[in-house]
Amino acid sequence: MSEVTTHKEANAGPLGLLGFGMTTVLLNLHNAGVIEMSVMILAMGLAMGGLAQFIAGLMEFKAGNTFGATAFTSYGLFWWSLVIILVNPSILGAEAADGVSLGFYMLLWCIFTLFMFIGTIKANHATQIVFFTLMLLFLLLALENFTGIHVIGIIAGIEGIVCGASAIYTAVAGIVDGEFNKPIMPV
Predict the structure, then answer these.
(1) Which residues of 101-127 are buried (b: 16+ CB within 10 A; e: fewer)?
(2) What angle do CA 139, 166, 86 make, to 5 degrees?
(3) Considering only CA atoms, which of 54, 46, 56 is closest in space to residue 13?
(4) CA distance linking residue 142 with residue 153, whole number of Å
(5) What does the buried/exposed string (b/e) look like for 29-61 if buried means 16 or more CB atoms within 10 Å of the residue's CB?
(6) CA dist 18 → 36, 51, 142, 172, 184 (Å)
(7) 53-93: pLDDT as tens digits
(8) What's the rounded Cα separation, in Å, for the pair 34 and 18?
(9) CA 135 to chain centroid
(10) Which of 16, 17, 39, 174 is the most exposed place for a label (fewest CB within 10 A)?
(11) How far apart are CA 67 and CA 46, in angstroms?
(12) For 29, what's the count of Cα atoms within 13 Å in the CB-facing half-sphere?
């Protein structure tokens, strides 16, 4: 007699949210003027911001979650593209991006995030906060790059820390609630 085993698929959301949240906090500590840009931020962008989110996105594709798949793969690839832009644009045979170009880059991500935020209207409040604050972060970064006004970048950094922290909270809530099989942390 053979034994039938069932396989429960892991929730990829917490991994993706942690990758996003931790990387966002680190980069925005720099934007807020707390820490210098260093290899630590760039490595986190490649590993947790890029790779962890991309893996989470692929897992969401497999699970049939179009929203999660689109969000995590897109934002994972955002981090990889941002690191290339910041570190070595010549690897692609291109000139470094100027402020206006970066402004449009951030504005496009803001618009994409606005549409993703609309997709969270039926989701929990924590997820709505993550996407709303991310949309605001991209808008502030676009404005900073378009205008060259440094104080907007500092404000963006502070707002980005809030955004990243909200993603970390949402990830931890997903882990804790999943382990206890009941809501422990309010989302």
Answers:
(1) ebbebbbebbebbbebbeebeeeeebb
(2) 50
(3) 56
(4) 9
(5) bbbbeeeeeeeebbebbbebbbebbbbbbebbb
(6) 22, 12, 24, 8, 18
(7) 999 999 999 999 999 999 999 999 999 999 999 987 777 77
(8) 21
(9) 11
(10) 39
(11) 22
(12) 14
170 with 130: CB under 8 angstroms?
A: yes
The closest alpha carbon to 24, from 157, 187, 152, belongs to 157
Query: In sequence order, what are the residues at sequence separation of 6 or more whose Cβ sits closer than 8 angstroms to the Cβ of residue 52?
Result: 15, 16, 18, 19, 76
Quick check: 72 and 48 in contact, CB under 8 A? no
For the cut 70, the answer to whether the pLDDT of residue 5 exceeds it is no
**Residue 159 backbone class (left: φ over 0; alpha: ψ -120 to 50; beta: rest):** alpha
For 29-48, the pLDDT digits (tens) are 999 999 999 999 999 999 99
Q: Residue 93 contacts by C-beta under 8 Å, 6 or more apart in sequence?
A: none
Q: Which amino acid is at 97?
A: A
The two tokens of residue 126 are: 């924590």
